[in-house]
Amino acid sequence: MYIIREAQEKDILEIVAIEDLSFPVPWPDFLFRSNLENPGFIVYEDKKKIIGYAILGTFKSNAHLLSIAVHPTQRKHGIGSLLLQKCISIARYYGYKSMTLEVREKNLDGQRFYQANGFKEKESVEGYYLDDNAVRMQRKI
């Protein structure tokens, strides 16, 4: 049985391991620790193991998905969509009407995932990542 809950200090090592397996330029652990008080920092836990996480923040007047990842061996089972839907629920609770995010221009699977979850391409952001441009996406919530 799984639960989606707020992230805790004890989760950081597993979150960082997922991050390292998921991104070419992963976030360092201190960035995760700095978000521990953020009610939008959530984890998907199954049998006391962290399988995925998401971090929701703000950008201008929108809710903003800062990061989301699922362990590579657990992808394509709907966990990312569950995490994203929970982030949308949190954003609605705090009164936001739309959500934005950035995804690597080269990450076509990621772009398809967000499109399947109602996001539309808004603009391209050159040099957003150290090694790639970003596609900024948005959806009404």
UniProtKB/TrEMBL annotation:
Keyword presence, Transferase: yes
Domain of life: Archaea
Keywords carried by this UniProt record: Acyltransferase, Transferase
GO molecular function annotation: N-acetyltransferase activity
InterPro entries: AcTrfase_RimI/Ard1, Acyl_CoA_acyltransferase, GNAT_dom, N-term/lysine_N-AcTrnsfr
Keyword Acyltransferase among UniProt keywords: yes
N-acetyltransferase domain boundaries: 2-141
Membrane spanning residue stretches: none
The protein's name in its UniProt record: Ribosomal-protein-alanine acetyltransferase
